[in-house]
Amino acid sequence: MSQLVVVPIKADAVSDFYKGRQVRLLIGYSAGGGYDTYARLLARHLGKHIPGNPTIVPQNMPGAGSLTLANFIYNVAPKDGSVIGTFARGMAMEPLLSGMGTRFNANEFSWIGSLNNEVSVCASWYESNVKTMEDLNNYELIVGGTGSGADTDTFPIVMGNLITPNIKLISGYPGGNDVLLAMERGEVDGRCGWSWSTVVSRSSDWLAEGRINILVQLALEKHPDLPHIPLITEFAENDDELMALELIFARQVMGRPYLAPPGIPIDRLTALRNAFEATTNDPEFIADATRIQLELNPVSGEEIDILISRIYDASENAVSLASKAIVKSDGM
Fold this sequence. Notes:
The protein contains 13 helices and eleven strands. By secondary structure, the protein is an alpha/beta fold. The chain folds into two domains: about 10-115 and about 255-320, D-Maltodextrin-Binding Protein, domain 2 (3-Layer(aba) Sandwich), CATH 3.40.190; about 120-250, 3-Layer(aba) Sandwich (D-Maltodextrin-Binding Protein, domain 2), CATH 3.40.190. A three-stranded parallel sheet has the order 2-1-3, sandwiched between helices.
């Protein structure tokens, strides 16, 4: 009797492509911040789950709140699965809400997954007069940002347009760590669009010492750590404002997104997605994340595809309100 032999042609093709290869993981921010820390964690473990076991090489490509990287991934990076990247969680919404400087269609990216469903916060330095959201009725809060499209810019702009006129933004810092240094130096009073996972992993000493005040959660659902800190949506004064806020903060679902250029071979995209899922279930990866205090709440590439499609199907009225809300006013 002849023996049936199943030849996994596609798997072999993917393995042949990746074997002995270096895969670049491009990071849209400078070294040391949250996106960089998550990406380097992923780089240490992802390769062993990709057929052919390529070496994952992290590389920083900061600029314009990661817009530089987004445009590069879409227009310049090879579309063969040898380059992947991570950029601001809100970058995918920029063509819809702003469009300034964007040269990509978010629906066409090859979404691999996200390491976290994120909650961000707005926080003030302990010396600031603003210690709660109510204090913004009487005092001004100056926050630092990292560039157009980044949460550190977009979120305080939204707050300034929809919630309170007493938030001012100084933008242009190279990365999140630079904003924190500016807080210590007294150049700014705080930081908005600061991922709670990064606060816990990188600034736990500030929390323990009471050196920062957590003012508000910039998300659609509260983080379990922060049951008494209000959500930004609680400050909406009408249904239109609530819809606009929900559209803007839906990006938090893809808190630490990873993607490849459009049009990479489907078998390689499937392999990257499978490897991403396997990595997030890998005990060594989870232990590594725990060791450096990084929160994990993975989201699949397929779920991101659905989210992006839903966002781009939002009503014209909601999009118009949200689009106006993210534009920096002269007073900021």
